[in-house]
Design a protein that fits this description.
Strand order of the largest sheet: 1-2-3-4
Order of helices and strands: EEEEHHHH
Largest sheet: 4 strands, antiparallel
Number of domains: 1
Structural class: alpha+beta
Number of helices: 4
Strand content: 25-35%
Distance between the termini: 50 Å
Length: about 130
């Protein structure tokens, strides 16, 4: 079984990220990892059959990589949209989504924007407590 690895750099207005997708021949996995400043933020793994033909594994690595890149790009597009929003609840929700993805720089920008728009509002995070 061949080893394949794809790397793509994507950037928000705040920071640059690296998406790396590869197959792990020993464990029968396709792994897609998201890094920022050399720190692993998130890993998504998909099991593959060890008997799968190399061409199929390569296609799986490619499609997994494209899906991951599109997911991150959608988050960045929503982040850019949120910078022009006035809806503090939507800004807060997106900030939480980015926070849970460990995209702290973008999350902080949105949380600060929400506070500037409505200093007395409770965060989504504190409303449920």
């Amino acid at each position: 079984m061949e080893n394949y690895r794809l790397n793509t750099r994507v950037a928000s207005s705040e920071r640059e990220y690296l998406i790396q997708t590869s197959n792990d021949t020993r464990n029968g996995l396709v792994c897609s990892m998201l890094f920022s400043d050399g720190i692993l933020l998130e890993t998504v793994e998909e099991k593959v059959e060890l008997s799968m033909p190399d061409a199929d594994i390569l296609e799986l690595v490619k499609s997994t990589h494209v899906e991951r890149k599109e997911e991150v790009e959608r988050l960045f597009a929503k982040f850019e949209e949120a910078l022009n929003m006035e809806d503090t609840e939507q800004i807060d929700y997106l900030g939480l989504a980015l926070f849970y993805k460990r995209m702290y720089s973008e999350a902080e920008v949105l949380f600060r924007k929400a506070v500037l728009l409505d200093p007395g509002a409770q965060s989504i995070n504190t409303k449920s407590k």
